[in-house]
Amino acid sequence: MDITPGFVGAIGNTPLIRLNSVSDETGCEILGKAEFMNPGGSVKDRAALYIIKDAEERGLLKPGGTVVEGTAGNTGIGLAHICNAKGYKCLIIIPETQSPEKIELLRTLGAEVRTVPAVPYKDPNNYVKLSGTIASEMENAIWANQFDNLANRRAHYETTGPEIWQQTDGKIDAWVTATGTGGTYAGVAMFLKEQNPDIKCVVADPKGSALYSYVKTGELTTEGSSITEGIGSSRLTSNMQGVPADDAIQVDDPEAVRIIYQLLQKDGLFMGGSVGINVGAAVALAKQLGPGHRIVTVLCDGGSRYQSKLFNRDWLAEKGLFPPA
Ligand code: PMP
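A: This is the predicted complex of the input protein with 4'-deoxy-4'-aminopyridoxal-5'-phosphate.
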């Protein structure tokens, strides 16, 4: 018998999928860790579980307590599922610019959702800072604090990284992914470098994020913007501090959208926007490294979370983006 003990037991152990169209085009084996197959539908289920387990173990979260978080969506969705499964309440603060699909889903899952204007991190009304303030004023509540809570990257150091190592039999040339909190990139990069320091670890970055310039020059500067959600950062989060990064690759929105539609039309994979940045960066890296290399990236979440935006041609056209017919 092979029975999984509830929702929480179904998190992780996702397939590693060969992305055939981009692999065949580049002559490299480009592999996507299928995080959209987690039971909450995204890579963030892993971090949400580790953050809650850590708070339980440290005695901070007691029965009937509330988990509070500022999130662009996927972490909140993971937290809301796990809170239901474990008997906690969930309060989510989300920027009103996030896709309506994610906001509605959070409410359907039973989380209390407060939408707030999207303002920069330095503003005290920024959604992340607000979530911390609200949590500190509540009884029996924790602030998940995914950006600076190291339980986040530990999830990937202890699970995603070892799974990739095992699934590739240790035969991997490069790891590349975009960062939101940085938990996924950091935990996997730290684990893989310990196994083999020759594995190239590369940060993928959308326009409008400061990490590309940080890795290239040591300065946090930004230019432009992106329609992708859940990735990009104007600062170095605690989860990204002290983490190896051999290089960075910037991917613009036209390339990310081209990749998303190619994955759908040629590979049968219906993916969210951050996957376009990840796979776009993997393709650019494959061209740098030359044929015959194996590159691993992340399929963070599925396309149904972005149907009204990324898969709405009128919306894309307003942004000057024209995917293939
Ligand atoms: N893609 C999507 C769609 C996300 O929601 C997130 C998390 N915000 C990421 C990528 C990045 O993951 P991480 O926080 O581990 O850097």
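Residues 42-44, 72, 74, 179-185, 229-231, 272, 274, 300-301 surround 4'-deoxy-4'-aminopyridoxal-5'-phosphate (CB under 6 Å). The chain has a mean pLDDT of 97.
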